[in-house]
Amino acid sequence: MEKIFTARKREKLIQHHRKERDKRICDRIKAVLAYDDGYSYSEIARILLLDDETIRRHIEDYQRE
User: Fold this and answer.
1) pTM of this prediction exceeds 0.90
2) Of 16, 20, 52, 60, which has the fewest beta carbons less than 10 angstroms from its beta carbon?
């Protein structure tokens, strides 16, 4: 699988996650970071206690941006 992020973009996302108060946005950030690390949609969903389709939507939304 091809990486989505450069090291710099990844670090910026991690910093954003640390400062973010909205836990839904934090879950989205964690989802795209985990996907970039090679986790599958179902693995991420299980870890974050969300459903597969939500994870898929988070990843697709981020890739469109």
Assistant:
1) no
2) 60
